[in-house]
Amino acid sequence: MAESVWKRRLKETYDHYAKERDQVVKDDWKLAERNMFLSRLQRENRAKLLEIGAGTGRDSMFFEENGLLVTATDLSGEMVLLCREKGLSAEQMDASDLQFPDGHFDGVWTINCLLHVPKRDLPGVLAEVRRVLKPGGLFYFGVYGGMDFEGVWEADRYDPKRFFSFHTDAAIQETVRRFFTLESFRTIDYGNEILHFQAMVLRR
After folding, report:
1. CB 188 within 8 A of CB 145
2. Quick check: 115 and 166 in contact, CB under 8 A?
3. How confident is the model at residue 1 (pLDDT cuts 50, 70, 90)?
4. Which residue from 141, 188, 139, 197 is spatially nearest to 166, judged by alpha carbons?
5. CB of 88 within 8 A of CB of 61?
6. Most buried among 8, 78, 109, 185, by the most CB within 10 A?
7. Which residues form the Methyltransferase type domain (predicted)?
């Protein structure tokens, strides 16, 4: 699927389901990951945070309510509007072309966003994240994975069905190490028979 096609469909899907997704109750394990990363940032006095794939802005709100200076970004215009309704600084932006100066952020948070990036394009996105992070900055990168797959997920309940890229544990670690120091890699079983969650804390 051509890049322009998958991005257009992804925007369409998330625009359509934005308000529904704003009502979904977050899993406890996702809240725990969020708390863990906040603690890491606070211990190192890192206050300026970028969220990539902010969705409806609930994670960004959490970080902002806990004293961080947050910029939320998302590919979906409807998601960005919901972020702004919450009072967040939010921009519609492609992760492959982050419109920020070099070394602008102390930390970056992205959860279940970059699994929509084709494998051939992920290195370019990671290079952009590295560029906008300050030296020594922290990057939380969390995605579903544990298998080698790329394409439209036919079991997806959303319409249009979404494009996903899933990586094996070995493959995703090899990819991120090209751009960052991998400080921790953990897998979380969330009840799916074929996938697990891959949680990474990386340093610029």
Report:
1. no
2. yes
3. very low
4. 197
5. yes
6. 109
7. 50-141
Pick the CATH number of 3-203 from 3.30.870.10, 3.90.1300.10, 3.40.50.360, 3.40.50.150: 3.40.50.150
Q: How many CA atoms lie within 13 A of 167 on its CB side?
A: 23
Residue ranges per domain, the chain? 3-203
pLDDT single digits (tens) 128-146 = 999 999 999 999 999 999 9
At 6 the pLDDT is 84
- Measured CA to CA, the distance from residue 2 to residue 85 in angstroms comes to 33
pLDDT at 76: 96
CB 89 within 8 A of CB 49: no
* 150-176 pLDDT tens trace: 999 999 999 999 999 999 999 999 999
pTM of the model as a whole: 0.95
Run of H or E including 108:
strand 105-111
Tell me which long-range contacts 185-189 makes (C-beta under 8 A, separation of at least 24): 187/146, 188/29, 188/33
CA distance 87 to 81: 10
Amino acid identity, position 90 = A
- Cα angle 81, 10, 110 (rounded to 5 degrees) comes to 70
CA atoms within 13 A of residue 77's CA, in its CB half-sphere: 3
